[in-house]
Amino acid sequence: MLLLVSYGLYAQTNAAYTLILLGVTFVTYYFALLIERSQAERPKHLLIVCGSVLALLPLLVFKYYNFIINTSNAFFESIHCATVLPGLNWAVPLGISFFTFQAVGYLMDVYYRRIKAEHNWLDYMLFVSFFPQIMSGPISKAKDLLPQIKTCRQFDAAMATQGLKWFVWGLFLKVMMADRLGMYVDQVLDNYMFNSGTSCLLATIYYSFQIYGDFAGYSFMAMGVGKLMGFNLINNFQRPYLSTSITDFWRRWHISLSTWLKDYVYIPLGGSRCSKARNYWNIFVTFLVSGIWHGANWTFVFWGVLHGLFQIIEKMFGWQKVTTTNLPIRVARIVITFTLVTIAWIFFRQPTIADAFGVIERIVTEHGALFKPSNTEVVFSALSIGIVACVDLLREFLPKRFYQLVQAPVVVRWCVYYALLLIVLLSGVFDSSQFIYVSF
């Protein structure tokens, strides 16, 4: 039933692209069986290389072919060569980066003997295509999700209740905060050259909260739907804007991707068990891959490089290991980390590196009147950020008091639930806007 629903929902976007999903699933399933049966190390190495390349090939073609061709054409034009290579006019299959990385991660786990190859074809198909997470993650590991697929599940009222709470919170983050802030962000940053530096600064800060609300909102809704059906999916976000370093930020932001990159890129390159210079190189390559994974544009590459350099600098001075119970120092570190992350988001958001530097230039030099939408927009934007900030601060610094809500009287709990739903219904933005990470 779940397999039919997963493929049926995926086919609604473009039925032909289910063949891509099926192809990646078949390649990784078949090569995992071949790797498990192979005894010699050399054939296994050849099989993992061939299987990974074949599984990644659709991702490379659909997502990066035009980027490579456009870059090549620009190079030929710069040297006055008339050669023009043809591009593709195809849309990128929905969630291709997520289900490809999940399938390749499974293949790598079989190769490193962390798990045994899955022999049930239908179970493995559902693992790759499970509908709550296929669009924007989280990227689940086979050792976590496959056993749940194979287990006979019964309805669990407590689990379903928690799932509904996660879903409503995710809905609030998406339609109340992310989509509302997105209207201001689009108005200002898409036309940054006509707006003051003050407006650009506010829009940049808004974008940090927009992308958090958008992506975390999806992840929490995916967790909620999973729990309703008896599945525990990885929590992708742990209050990332309360991080005290960039290293700490990546332990809290898009946790499933960070784990994937650590297990299948950083550690195979040598991780930290090598010379300092080699370790810094491993960090740089890992975040370069992270930038490339996010999109076929130089802005994403630059964003990944920035985060890699931030972490290398932290490691050079040992700042990532420094912990403190001194509240003013901790707050200062949180503010510095948030500032660095927000600056990097400018390159993530803008279409070109030149546009990103243009926004930064206006923030630094062009101070002027603040662009203000309607009073209603101001109030709802401030309200949404305030609620999210209060919830994250309570969970970070006062977790026991926050979770006492679960033991609160029924009347109190339902008043909170209805208040949250009422805010969503009255002030949410229901314009069918797509999730940001769907395009990745």
From TrEMBL:
Protein family according to the UniProt entry: Belongs to the membrane-bound acyltransferase family.
Top enzyme category: transferase
Localization of this protein: Cell membrane
InterPro entries assigned: Ac/AlaTfrase_AlgI/DltB, AlgI, MB_O-acyltransferase, MBOAT_fam
Protein's membrane topology: Multi-pass membrane protein
Protein name: MBOAT family O-acyltransferase
Residue ranges of the TM segments: 15-34, 46-68, 88-109, 189-209, 215-234, 279-296, 331-348, 410-430
Alphabetized GO MF terms: acyltransferase activity
Keywords, in A-Z order: Acyltransferase, Cell membrane, Membrane, Transferase, Transmembrane, Transmembrane helix
Chief location bin: membrane
Enzyme Commission number(s) from the entry: 2.3.-.-
